[in-house]
Design a protein that fits this description.
Length: 267
């Protein structure tokens, strides 16, 4: 049974658990800022949508969702999954996150912009943040996640970081001060900075990564699948306790930022 068959059988939510073990954590964070709506014209852009799991989730809650990626193959997979799952009000154009400013149709066009685990791949992170700001309507919000610079490294995510934009990480991650610095430069007001993917999510991710070269993708996925119930049950309180008591921080830092509705004196 392939991944698309699972989406056909179980709906778009199957796409949250078939690959990256941390995607579900990001969805749980995102969902808190997406109250269900009906007969709305609110538009949401996801920059760097992968194979579309989160974009489908956004559309399922009543929003017009656009998932942007430079990867033509991923976009085709995302389109097929959305079709199989019966998700409406969704599209997957091809576009480069580094060239958002070249999309005139995106300028001040969105109520919400999502950018998850993308900025650490981009050398000119200042430009990316400014472009994300430009995509938002006045009063719109940005939700962003990126590796926490203080995360605990495992054997295959300890660097070295790429010197060019070849698909790898160009930096380890970000601290809250670095995020605030970028927001100030781009014109954002910071509403909230937090963390996701604590101890249990990280352990499961490490198990999966170690299994992949040994048993292959599908057997590794099947082995870790029963463990995926642990983060939703335990990471909310026990994971945060591990962070406080044992210095095991969340893997990703999260940002909620706001584009001002108007410019005041001095802006």
């Amino acid at each position: 049974m392939n991944d698309n068959s699972l989406v056909k059988l179980f709906g778009w939510r199957a796409a949250l658990v078939h690959g990256d073990t941390l995607v579900l954590d990001r969805w749980r964070f995102l969902k808190g800022f997406l109250p269900k709506v009906k007969d709305t014209h609110e538009r949401v852009l996801e920059v760097g949508c992968g194979t579309g799991a989160l974009t489908m989730g956004i559309a399922s809650r009543g929003y017009e969702a656009i998932g942007l990626s430079w990867d033509e193959r991923n976009q085709k997979v995302a389109e097929e999954r959305a079709r199989l799952a019966g998700v409406k009000n969704i599209s997957f154009p091809i576009g480069d996150a580094r060239k958002l400013d070249q999309h005139e149709e995106f300028q001040q066009a969105f109520d919400l912009v999502i950018c998850f685990e993308v900025i650490e791949h981009i050398l000119d992170d200042r430009k990316l943040m400014r472009d994300l700001h430009a995509c938002l309507k006045p009063g719109g919000r940005l939700l962003l996640t990126t590796p926490n610079i203080y995360y605990r490294s495992s054997w295959n995510d300890a660097g070295p970081w790429s010197k060019v934009e070849d698909g790898g990480h160009v930096r380890r991650g970000y601290s809250s001060a670095m995020i605030r610095e970028l927001c100030k430069d781009a014109g954002f007001m910071v509403e909230e900075i937090g963390y996701v993917s604590f101890f249990f999510s990280q352990v499961i991710s490490r198990v999966l990564r170690r299994l992949l070269p040994v048993v292959g993708k599908r057997p590794a996925w099947a082995i870790v699948l029963p463990l995926r119930i642990l983060p939703p049950l335990l990471d909310g309180w026990l994971g945060r306790l591990m962070s406080t008591a044992f210095g095991w921080p969340g893997y990703s830092i999260t940002l909620v930022a706001y584009r001002k509705r108007w410019l005041g004196n001095g802006d």
